[in-house]
Design goal:
alpha+beta, 15 helices, elongated, 546 residues, 5-stranded antiparallel beta sheet
């Protein structure tokens, strides 16, 4: 229907446009005729009248000659001839200067007609009848040139006055499909309006962007008069739409649509409702799986395709559940093996140095020291290869005993270079901690804190309880480091590299400890290092009690 409205409305708007363009062309042809009329030019250029009566006679003859030789349309209200000396001869009353004085004062806003060419804006002019009904006029001003000179010069002007109401009366009457018709000049000033709510119409026109637009109240058609750049806007209200609708076509179309909707409602709609319910059920199951719950199955009833979808979904969930279980089992096994490998890792430099110390003591015939050192070393080896069911954890009491054996070995290696002091809460003797996390940290204190110092130092180990957590603090008064470097040691990407960069002897180190804590407790632990240059370093571990 909208296509039909656009097609028919554009056709009628084009008829209006053609009539207005034809009228404007007639005005232009009339202006050309008057400009080329020899009697007109002769009258304007003549100055040697013998008497006033002779001039009146010539004026009357000129005006009558123009009326006899041109067919004036009823929308041409009047015309006026103006000489360069300011003399004006109006066709309604050739012997009175009333028109030109009024025209320049009111229509041209006090300006001279010589400053205008082409169409003026519209203005109201008193009627020729005695009741003084105001007329809506617009004037076209053009020059009368002297064609004898090489360069044409204006010798006068002609003003043709158009009655817009009369011009548009036939168009509005014949084109009754449009509720409102308006004409705008090239400066977008409204020069004609057929009637109605002017303010609302102007507001709607300002929002138009195309030649055909639909609004809430109807349809707007816009055209441009090519020969004078006027714009014609025609409005077709919703009340007038029925006048151009193709009723014989619309009624069968409506009947067909109603019958089709009834058939859809009777035969297809129930099946659509059932499919929709099954899809919602499947969507809820997908949401449950997305939240991590794989203990779910769905059964879709109805169409064969729905049953296939539900079977495929259930099979996918079972396979996904099994895949995740296998993946987690493999990951757990891999992590356990990796963790056990960390436990069995012994620094080869430490073994080498310990055996050298044994040889040295044997050569000195210090048999008791050899026995003591060898016993401590065997204890460390037994602890490293002790991988039973609970080998990931060790009692604090046992772990501290291993530390004592490690200190015995290191005191033979670094004689008189450090003292070691250990304190712990006896209530924590049977508490479990990850195996072999203390020895690497004490090794760091000896190798990277005390030894580079050049004098004797002190290493302290304290194990205390804070609510449901174990707090382990290892401090030394060694050379220390910048806090920024201490923070870098805890970066999981640089742990081993940072430790190795500080010594030719590569300890198992901080990276080993961090991996064990992360594997065991996830995020429920704290591992911090605080240090100051020349003052020492403190390593703190806080972890849950097991």
């Amino acid at each position: 229907m909208q296509t039909n409205i656009a097609k028919f409305g554009n056709h009628e708007a084009q008829k209006n446009l053609t009539q207005i363009e034809n009228s404007v062309d007639e005005i232009y042809r009339l202006s050309e005729y008057l400009s080329l009329n020899s009697d007109m030019r002769a009258f304007i250029e003549r100055r040697d009248y013998k008497s006033a009566s002779e001039k009146v006679k010539n004026v009357t003859h000129l005006l009558q000659n123009i009326k006899n030789n041109i067919l004036l349309k009823d929308y041409i209200h009047s015309y006026c001839i103006i000489a360069n000396d300011g003399s004006a001869y109006w066709s309604e009353c050739a012997y009175d200067d009333f028109f030109i004085d009024w025209f320049e004062k009111y229509a041209l806003k006090g300006n001279s007609s010589k400053e205008y060419l082409g169409f003026t804006g519209n203005y109201a002019f008193p009627s020729r009848t005695s009741n003084f009904v105001h007329l809506n006029l617009i004037s076209c001003i053009f020059n009368i040139n002297n064609v004898n000179n090489r360069v044409p010069t204006a010798i006068g002007q002609v003003i043709i006055n158009l009655d817009l109401d009369t011009l548009m009366e036939g168009i509005v009457t014949e084109n009754s499909i449009f509720s409102q018709i308006a004409i705008f000049d090239e400066r977008d000033n409204m020069i004609y309006f057929s009637g109605g709510e002017r303010t609302k119409f102007l507001q709607e026109v300002k929002q138009l962007k195309t030649n055909f637009e639909k609004s809430e109240n109807g349809y707007y058609f816009t055209d441009v008069v090519n020969n004078c750049n006027w714009k014609i806007v025609s409005f077709l209200s919703n009340q007038h739409v029925n006048k151009i609708m193709d009723i014989p076509f619309v009624i069968p179309a409506i009947i067909i649509i109603i019958v089709a909707l009834l058939l859809i409602f009777i035969f297809i709609f129930p099946r659509l409702i059932n499919v929709s319910k099954q899809i919602i059920k499947l969507d809820q199951a997908i949401g449950t799986v997305a939240n991590g719950d794989l203990d779910i199955s769905v059964s879709l009833i109805g169409e064969r395709e729905l049953a296939n979808i539900s079977d495929g979904f259930n099979h996918m969930v079972v396979k996904t559940k099994q895949y995740m279980k296998d993946a987690l089992d493999n990951l757990e096994a891999k992590q356990k093996v990796s963790f056990e490998l960390l436990l069995t890792k012994i620094n080869p430099h430490f073994i080498y140095n310990t055996l050298n110390s044994v040889i040295y003591l044997a050569r000195k015939n210090r048999n008791q020291d050899v026995i003591k050192l060898t016993s401590a070393f065997i204890c460390l080896l037994q602890d490293s290869i002790h991988l039973e069911e609970n080998s990931l954890f060790e009692h604090i009491e046992t772990e501290l005993e291993v530390i004592n054996q490690y200190i015995i070995i290191q005191k033979y290696r670094y004689m008189d270079q450090f003292l070691f002091n250990c304190t712990f809460d006896r209530e924590l003797e049977r508490a479990l901690i990850p195996k072999n996390i203390l020895q690497p940290l004490i090794e760091n204190s000896i190798l990277h804190g005390i030894c580079p110092k050049g004098s004797s130092g002190l290493i302290e180990l304290a194990v205390t309880r804070e609510n449901n957590y174990i707090k382990i603090v290892i401090t030394d008064n060694g050379i220390g480091m910048e806090q920024e470097k201490a923070d870098q040691l805890l970066s999981r990407n640089n742990l081993d590299e940072s430790c190795a960069a500080h010594s030719k002897i590569r300890p198992i180190g901080i990276g080993n400890v961090a991996e064990k804590l992360h594997f065991t407790y996830g995020t429920d632990y704290r591992f911090t290092i605080t240090s100051n240059p020349n003052l020492g370093t403190a390593v703190t571990i806080i972890m849950p009690i097991r």
